[in-house]
Amino acid sequence: QDEPAGRACGKVILLGEHAAVYDKHVLAVPLPEAIEARVRPADGRSRLRIPAWGVDEPVVPGRRGSSAAVATVALIMRELHVAERHYDIEVDARIPAAMGLGASAAIAVAIIRAFDLQLGFRLDNRTIDTLAFECEKLAHGTPSGIDNNLATYGEPVLYTRSTASRTKPIQLSEVPPLVVASSGKRGVTKDMVAGVAKRYASNQTLYDTIFSEIDELSVAGSVALRDADYESLGSMMNVCHGFLNAIEVSTPELEKMVHIARLNGALGAKLTGAGGGGSIVALCPGRSHDVAAALKKAGYAIIRFSDS
Ligand code: MEV
């Protein structure tokens, strides 16, 4: 525990997932204190440990059956020109894997920062973000870059892939009253994005219309978020969830969670991230306790919770 920790945020998408892959706007806020990583020189071969996820594996580039996290570490070590050296990499994960909360990008950023601290490179955030984006490509093929942006900068953003280098954080006057709950079912981003791509290819005009609508929701939602206009933002989240259902990334479980949240006072509730499992986010001014309690009673894990 004596090595300095590299840290990274997770993310919660409020509006715009999937459309983001088609260069549309996506609105997201950080999940602070999500991942910490420490790197120390080792004698034998390099090893990755993520105790909270049951990962304890040697880092052997290209080895069949290695986890995605090991592939990420191997890529980072190669890009930082330390692939020939040996390290113990220890990760403290405070968010679950494959729950739509940006854990894979956060792991990448925290590990890059831990190597940076260990080796004294003094990498700037843009370099860290770019390398984490390469890791995301490895993990899910055609990422928009929203996850590595949030992991690196940890600030609320309205983001598009095409203007990524000019993304400015949104200044919030208060912490939005959000409840984030996980279904406990893994959602595999790569598969969900591939499924949408397949349906997009056979329904291009229809899907372009849906993505344009989602784009407008994200842009308008960023203003509502900034102004703490939760009535408007909540409605937009509900409509966005309808579109996500329409492009077939929701599940019966996510629908159930969304309904529990709305029945217990959420102004808006939707799946967040790639779907197919994973998590929901609910906007619940004055009702966060009720919504969190109802979701918990129904057997779902509360990941984050904030009240206004
Ligand atoms: C995943 O966090 C969000 C998606 O839009 C994929 C991406 O933007 O890279 C589903």
From TrEMBL:
Q: Record's Gene Ontology CC terms?
A: cytoplasm
Q: Name one GO molecular function term.
A: ATP binding
GHMP kinase C-terminal domain location: 224-300
Please state what the protein is called.
Answer: 3-hydroxy-3-methylglutaryl coenzyme A reductase
Q: Which residues of the full protein are shown?
A: 441 to 748 of 748
Keyword annotations from UniProtKB, A to Z: ATP-binding, Kinase, Lipid biosynthesis, Lipid metabolism, NAD, Nucleotide-binding, Oxidoreductase, Transferase
Q: Which GO terms describe its biological process?
A: coenzyme A metabolic process; isopentenyl diphosphate biosynthetic process, mevalonate pathway
Q: Where are the transmembrane segments?
A: none
Task: Provide the GHMP kinase N-terminal domain boundaries.
Answer: 72-152
Report the sequence similarity comment from the record: Belongs to the HMG-CoA reductase family.
